Amino acid sequence: MKYDRRLPRTTIPPVSPPHLSMHLREHPGESAYELEQMALAAAYEIEDLAQVALVTQWIDVELAGPHLPGTRVSLPIGPVLNGAAVTVHWEEPGQSSVALTPSQYQLRGGMRPYLRLIDDGQLPKALQVGSTTLLIAYEAGFGPDAMTVPADLQHAILDQAASAYDQRGVAEPGDGTWRSPHAARIIGKYRGVRA
What we know:
Helix content: 25-40%
Order of helices and strands: EHHEEEEEEEHH
Structural class: alpha+beta
């Protein structure tokens, strides 16, 4: 399975600026822009590690066949809210993609979303051949802005940004030494084990 978050990602940190300044123990003269960038970097890292979309964004999934009716396709990023938009296409090598109708699939939302193909008598037989690709595009996220992000994830972002702020110049981002243990525990709560 291959998936991508559609760009651009949010450019507004999913935490409020006053909470960010207070949590980072901001000193007079610190750049608000630099602090926002640390919060954004923390939010992106938490999204990637927890396999969530903090604010609403589109996720594109490509899945190689075969695709049998009734098969459950776990979607890589949650949550998917009720009524979220989804499109499903399939394509054969060298052919243009063909849309499936909503009667040919079922989307189950929540933190561990999945899609199930339904054989309504019109489901293309070519989908059951290994050379087809299923293309799924769906909306994931807790909502449109920072107010919809759960409080524990907001706190994880603040803690991760504070850890990066305190370690700047000492450790390199991504080497694991600047990850907040509190954020790691919250990330673990959201990250699921998928079969």
